[in-house]
Amino acid sequence: MLAVVSTSLLLCGIDLTVLHAAVPSMSTELHPSSSELLWIVDIYSLTLAALLVTFGTLGDRIGRKRMVLSGFALFGLASAAAGLSSTTSQLIASRVLLGVGAAMIMASTVAIIRVVFTDDRERALAIGVWTAAHSVGATLGPLVGGLLTEQWGWGAAFLVNVPIALIILVVGAYVIPESRNPRPRQWDLASVALSVTGLAGVVYALKQGGEHAGVDTVIVLTAVGGAALLYVFVRRQRRLTEPLLDFGLFSDRRFAAATLCVIGCFGSYVALLFFLTQWLQNVGGFSPVAAGLALMPLAAANAVGATTAPWLSARWGNRWVLTAALGVFALAMLFMALVGDTGAYPLLIAPLVVAGYGAGIVMTLGADSIMSAADPDRSGEAAAIQETSFELGAGLGVAVLGTTLTASYRLAMPDTPGLSESDRDVVKESFSSAEELAEKLEPQAVAQVVDAARVAYDQGFTTVAVFAAIGLTGTAVIAAVLLRPRPADG
After folding, report:
1. H helices of 117-188, where?
2. Keyword Membrane on this protein (predicted)?
3. pLDDT tens digits along 343-366
4. pLDDT of 325
């Protein structure tokens, strides 16, 4: 049973990042705008984050096995739709459905583990394996996507999920036990609508602002409207006797700080996977497979960091180990910004190892701090927030830093002489747009446009790395200040 649910999380983790190495190939075929590209990449994680708690509550009511198997059926169908998409809008819609399916899977598997493994030690081990499967999947995603894209095209990165989902459906029907909560919480549809709509509005405004390197009335109104809906959502949760998401847990400063650490770290980590993969391919000329392999030092170090985190914590405590890990992750990002050259990949190996090691520590100890800060009788709610923080971090990390890269690229891209006004707008849209336009230009203009686009993308990646370093440094300060033990703890 543990093998089935862990494989399911491995699959969800892979799908979080599998498209990273396939983006250049997919962009050439579907021609998404910068904003649409960001939606394609992170709408999956944002949908997943927005619906995790919702489907956890619904699974308690209708049956967790039924929820998991329905999730896999939807995941398989959505994967087929994504792999066969011929337009950007079709792919975005398919990614939304993938996020819905993954939320149904993730929300119920952890509850099933708690029911099946009644011994505390066995349950802790099972949850550890379950969590690690998701992180390993997210790290392997770019390599898997690169291999599939190079052999069969970008659609294969999704189509490979179909037979796997079918196998898990058949096996899961036999080995996963059915369970329900005899006293399920109320499923509040209004809270679901407020959270999903509010988050979508804020993220949409953020992406549009980055694409146009500025704001207009529509963007401002969308951002304000989305923020207002999220505010109403929080107020509603505080009034309900059975809230969808209990914000009372955040009154504990250690719980709130640990959640911020997870969101900031995992967001930066997933964003690094995405933007480094694009940078290596677009600017460095790496193949999809080579770009995926180039990230393996990051992946290996992440696994080592997660493995050694408990030992480090036992020696120096969660507070200082988390602070140090966030600090070295920030320094690694800053060093990558200073290198700023894909041709100097050997110089990037050391900071990739440091970044991966630091991120592995934070993901493990941050999750542990969230669970240990909550009262034992509220462990289920704390676990739901822990899972949500990982997915929300991934979505917001790509959204915020992706908007930063888009705006930086547009500002750094010079007005190339000899191009019409419309062509200048095209080359400022994205790197793939510049490459596509260059193929239609006179030979003497091709190198000029492509070189300018590479320099602008270099500048964009450097800006992203600097912003991530600043954010991680701020998170390290929060960890040092707010994770101090309670006076009663000694």
Report:
1. 120-152, 156-159, 161-175
2. yes
3. 677 888 999 999 999 998 888 888
4. 95
pTM, entire model? 0.80
175 versus 380: which is more confidently predicted? 175
- Which of 364, 355, 388 has its CA nearest to residue 308? 364
Cβ(86)–Cβ(176) below 8 Å = no
Whether the per-residue pLDDT at 490 is higher than 50: the answer is no
Closest CA to 472 of 298, 301, 269: 269
Place of tokens 């030992």: 311
In this structure, of 51-65, 106-120, 242-256, the range with the lowest mean pLDDT score is: 106-120
Contact 70, 104 (CB under 8 A): yes
DSSP-assigned letter for residue 247 = G
Integer Cα distance of 364 and 381 in angstroms: 18
The three-state secondary structure class of 105 is helix
* Of 145, 139, 138, nearest in space to 23 by CA: 145
Model confidence pLDDT, tens digit, residues 412-455: 887 777 677 777 777 777 777 777 777 777 777 777 788 888 88
CA dihedral 356, 360, 366, 369 (to 10 degrees): -150
- DSSP state for residue 375 in the 8-state scheme: -
Cα radius of gyration (the chain): 22
465: helix, strand or coil: helix
Dihedral of alpha carbons 399, 15, 372, 326, sign: negative
Measured between alpha carbons, how far is 355 from 326 in angstroms, rounded to an integer? 9
The answer for 317, left when phi > 0, alpha when psi is -120 to 50, beta otherwise, is: left
Using an 8 Å Cβ cutoff, are 233 and 194 in contact? yes
CB 118 within 8 A of CB 177: no
Q: Amino acid letter at 189?
A: L
